[in-house]
Amino acid sequence: MTVSTESTAPAEADANDTTPAGRHRFGAAWLAAVLVFGLLVGLAIGLLGPRLTTPGDDSVEAGFLRDMSTHHAQAVEMSMIAHAGSTDPEVISLSADIALTQHGQIGYMQAWLRDWHLSPTASTPPMTWMKDSAGSVQNGLMPGMATPAQLADLRKATGKALDVQYLTLMRQHHLGGIHMAQEILEESDNADVTWLAESQVRNQQGEINLIDSMLKKIQAT
Amino acid sequence: MSTPGPERVPSTVKVDKTSGQGKPPAKSAGAKSAGARSGTRPGARPQGKGGKGRKPTAPVTVKGSRNWGPIAVAGVVVLIAVGIIGYGVFASIKGTESWQDKAAGIEGVVNYRAQNNPAINAQDHKEGPLTYVTNPPVGGAHNARWQNCMGDVYAQPIANEHAVHSLEHGAVWVTYKQGLAADQVAKLQEKVQGRDYMLMSPIANLDKNISLQAWGYQLKVDNADDKRIDQFIQALRLNASLEPNAACSSGNTSTGPLQAAAPPAGN
After folding, report:
1. Above 50 in pLDDT, residue A1?
2. Do strands B110-111 and B217-221 pair parallel, antiparallel, or not at all (unpaired)?
3. Mutate which of B14, B38, B77 to disrupt the A interface (most A C-beta within 10 Å)?
4. Are the C-beta atoms of residues B180 and B210 closer than 8 Å to each other?
5. Is A26 near chain B, with CB under 8 Å?
6. CA–CA separation, A53 vs A64, rounded Å?
7. C-alpha span between B42 and A12 (Å, rounded)
8. Distance of alpha carbon A98 from alpha carbon A80, whole angstroms
9. Which residue out of B17, B40, B73, B239 would a mutagenesis test of the A interface target, given it has the greatest number of A Cβ atoms within 10 Å?
């Protein structure tokens, strides 16, 4: 293998063949190393990038998704009670709409937390992610949420009382939800989260208007 | 390496081939194979014709039968890259420790899933009173109705058959010995109320003051101040669900033993 050492011009003839090749080899090794390095760095960025660019465990987004999941779950609970117990077609329809929509949205929110490799539930008290939220949580309940006593009454109610109680509780619930959604719109620029929060503000505001007209109609009877 | 190949080609090829960087057209094939075997480069300097004296140091390293220099460099580079990736993977895995690992890290927690006990793993819906292999139960066949677990705090014992169904949906069931001091009960209640996928009830014949259940997991403690209670809830609430996105609402809200007949709708 050894052809020559530090030979000079005289070796020209022979060396001519080996010299470029030797350089080539050196260049090829470098090239390979750089390519491999580049590939590995690219892989590392690809692997780590999502971790660095998705919201973290203590982000406002994660806090919002966890809290809104719980908040939504109670809207589903109340709506299912009304849906099963009401005899008013409008209430039956609205409660189905709310229950299905909000349960579906819980799926979105939980799936994002899962995508981000975050716990589905918070390790901190509710509303911690929200600025100036001190005092907004009563007995573990976020703004707008019905108390256990109100839910117990709702379960017992029938007829017009059920409809009025449900619509009143749901109106309150939506107001609390809108408040939270508006807050995340101010604090986050995550495309998914703001997309959902924006729709919540818009749709729940619309439903509040509908609830107001329904309450007026029902109470007039 | 530092100059684009094409520019160099002329000097390389035509002049005296000593600086053969960018593929001398005709010779490249032969040169390459030759070089592959004899990695020697005798005085590669004589060019000096504006062919850009390449790296004066490079030839020096090449003296043995094998061109170890570049190999070593490449090796180091690869090692560094692997190290970077290894660290990244380690950090990201560590940062997102699985809930199973978190649960396993809680002192005193019993993982019944690991036992592969068919009586605990069963998910069938069965009517009527059922017997369970642990007290309180952590899994197994259960009633078709789940106990409402929307942060419900039940003041009286509830039916195991309903509660086990709640565990299947991802709830953490907090139980305490009936007659536990009121301040202890109040502390437990604070951890439950307002939180979905949580429910709480007393149990008559409990061997410890407090017992926490998720599907296939149990932790028994003596005091409501025990830090492990929060750890258990944080690790297993919702995570232990066997039915992703199954609800805790629309469940049974009455207390007492299992009722023979199905409870009225909307209850």
Report:
1. no
2. antiparallel
3. B38
4. yes
5. yes
6. 18
7. 8
8. 9
9. B40
Strand ranges of the sheet holding B217-221, from the earlier edge strand across to the other edge: B110-111, B217-221, B210-214, B172-177, B198-203, B150-153
> What SS3 state is found at B172?
strand
A13 touches chain B (CB under 8 A): no
C-alpha–C-alpha distance, residues B51 and B96, integer Å: 55
Which is more confident, B127 or A6?
B127
In Å, how far are A62, A78, B4, B79, B138 from B150, measured between CA atoms? 20, 11, 68, 52, 19
The answer to whether B73 faces chain A, any CB pair under 8 Å, is: yes
By percentage, how much of chain B surpasses pLDDT 70? Answer: 70
Residues B146 and B18: their CA atoms lie apart, in Å, by 84
Distance of CA A182 to the CA centre of its chain: 15
pLDDT at B24 over 60: no
* ipTM of the prediction: 0.82
d(Cα B239, Cα B103) in Å, to the nearest integer?
10
Cβ <8 Å between A5 and B42: yes
With H, G, I as helix, E, B as strand and everything else as coil, classify residue A193. Answer: helix
* Euclidean distance between CA atoms B80 and B74, whole angstroms: 10
Q: Residue B261 — pLDDT band, cuts 50, 70, 90?
A: low
Predicted TM-score of the model (pTM): 0.74
Question: What is the overall mean pLDDT for chain B?
Answer: 82
> In this structure, what token pair is assigned to residue B262?
């199905």
Which token pair is B17?
């081939």
Smallest Cα–Cα separation from B187: which of B206, B204, B209?
B209
